[in-house]
């Protein structure tokens, strides 16, 4: 083999409709790249993404993101030039699909190459978020769910994506929705791999690998899943011991200056007061409980899509849980979580335990049997998309 030649990536065939996560973990996780195929067509129940949901997620990110966030979440480039204000070059609801969006851009750009990148794609579209979470659940069973958030990035177009934050410290899955993509990987020690991925393929490479994607001549669509592989710093022991841990505090050498003011500037004084309030035992326990519940219900995909409007139920209604609901006490509060979202309830521990137990059986629950506090909780869980009216 000549110097610098790329080695073809291993191919791991699916077992039935699904990835063989056990074999993947044993042979490839944190070790070497692999192409997982076939995962059926995009949109199949076993696939991590559906093209229509991904398009709707891109529209949501383009039109429901605040101006301060838009430059970070949504990026658009024409040729090598990134546009700070893409305007109507971003996907619109009336486009309806990537194919119609591409035809519109063909007319507007006169065939010039373009690239669209959307970060945190899962954050604005619940069905997309739920599908991706379900797909990753089997992997977490084998390797454990990371504490740090999972990144989901859409790349669509006819040229390389505009620059986005690097994920060199993350393992990456690249799922192909449209087009035929040639990918070249460079790993630690200057190893080189190559792969050609088509719709339905899922390419994996470990952290520490550089990648280059050669998009097809016609617009192509891929979604990256970035799984952090750097250890998270757990501050819980330090907090519980009433200290800031063992990290040295940097203090200026020598004597204090004589002209230092007697009080902190207002912004620093406010920040210090906020820190004191948040690190009191009760607020800290509640904050840690929030993190535990979020981790237990979001599958690592945060931020989770925001809640919808609370539901309204009558005595004649019956409801059923569509998601696992969990709860825990925290410094006098009782917190309830589902779908990565959290609320408080005034139900007693006994009442809450009985209600959540009934919901998690999946059996119908007559609303007429419930107290007013229980109904208010159901309304909130409905907004989380965790219960449905039958």
How would you describe what is shown here?
This protein has 390 residues and is an alpha+beta fold. Helix content is 30%, strand content 24%. It contains 10 helices and 19 strands. The protein has helices spanning 21-27, 51-63, 67-73, 98-109, 126-143, 236-240, 266-278, 281-298, 349-359, 372-383; strands spanning 7-8, 10-13, 34-37, 74-78, 81-83, 114-118, 151-157, 170-178, 181-186, 192-197, 202-205, 210-214, 220-228, 318-321, 326-330, 333-338, 341-344, 365-366, 387-389. A hairpin with a 2-residue loop joins strand 15 and strand 16 (333-338). The longest helix has 18 residues, at 126-143. It is globular, with a radius of gyration of 25 Å. The model is unreliable at 233-252 (pLDDT under 50).
List the helices and strands and how they pair.
Layout: E1 7-8, E2 10-13, H1 21-27, E3 34-37, H2 51-63, H3 67-73, E4 74-78, E5 81-83, H4 98-109, E6 114-118, H5 126-143, E7 151-157, E8 170-178, E9 181-186, E10 192-197, E11 202-205, E12 210-214, E13 220-228, H6 236-240, H7 266-278, H8 281-298, E14 318-321, E15 326-330, E16 333-338, E17 341-344, H9 349-359, E18 365-366, H10 372-383, E19 387-389
Parallel strand pairs: 1-10, 2-3
Antiparallel strand pairs: 3-11, 4-5, 4-6, 6-7, 7-13, 8-11, 8-13, 9-10, 9-12, 14-18, 14-19, 15-16, 16-17
